[in-house]
Write a structure and sequence with these properties.
Layout: H1 18-25, H2 30-50, H3 57-64
Amino acid sequence: MEQPEKPDFRVIEYPFHLGDLVGGTTNLDDSQFCAYMRILIANINAQAKNGGLPDNEAVLRSYTRM
């Protein structure tokens, strides 16, 4: 009997520079900052799994929940 595929639980490491984050997002309000962070995290995850974010606005909006 074929075994089900195990989920991918690899640890994804990403260099994160706090100064760059703060310096580049000071003009954003809280909802914009949250959307930015959700896209950043989705991009890190997507690069690790399949090469990057999709070129689909609906999918990107789902990541930001906006």
